[in-house]
Amino acid sequence: MGIVQNHRPVILIAAVISRYEQAFDWSHEQLKSRWGDTCLESTRFDFVETDFYESTMGRGLKKQFWAFENLIDPADIASTKLTSNDLEAQFAESNSLPEERPLNIDPGYVTEAKLVLATTKDRDHRIYLQHGIFAEVTLHYHNRLWQSSRWTYPDYQRADFQEFFSECRQLLRQKYRSE
Questions:
Q1: Is the Cβ–Cβ distance between 78 and 55 less than 8 Å?
Q2: Each residue of 4-30: pLDDT tens digit?
Q3: pLDDT tens for residues 115-130?
């Protein structure tokens, strides 16, 4: 019989997509007020790997990642996704913008071994958590590199995205060593 152990805390990240500067600014403040200060912020990338979001979010989308200072229990990822969904709805309702969904916030977390994303969409490779939220291992870390799977989104296969996740992983390892 295996011995049950609690999981070590992990680095919470948010992937934010929008075409509006004010959406990035607003969501950054909202997330900081709920999840704490950011410790890492990526550059804002052009989101060009897919046109999946164009019908609801428009063209000229940008994507940015934020990592949060406070480590979390990975079991909390479902509640963070519910929070991000609520914030998306609040932003859409409080701004008179032509798009149905002017802001997309996808939370996830980084461990030493993987990047996990939370989603509301069920697929064969996703595990149900609770309250309509699923989780997927989007990337795994092996041989000092992030490795994709057959379902990894094309943008998450980009070297510049993976560089950000490596910075998160390194920061997490530093925090573990300082415990």
A1: no
A2: 999 999 999 999 999 999 999 999 999
A3: 999 999 999 999 999 9
Tell whether 1 is covered by a domain.
no
Would you say residue 4 lies in a domain? no
Distance separating the N- and C-terminal Cα atoms of the chain? 29
* Separation of alpha carbons 95 and 127, rounded Å: 34
Q: What are phi and psi of 32, to 5 degrees?
A: -60, -40
Domain that holds residue 100: 10-174
SS3 67: strand
Q: Count structural domains, the chain.
A: 1
* pTM tops 0.85: yes
Q: Classify residue 101: in a domain, yes or no.
A: yes
DSSP 74: G
Domain presence at residue 102: yes
- Give residue 179's pLDDT band: very low, low, confident or very high (50, 70, 90): confident
What tokens appear for 39 in the block?
């410790």
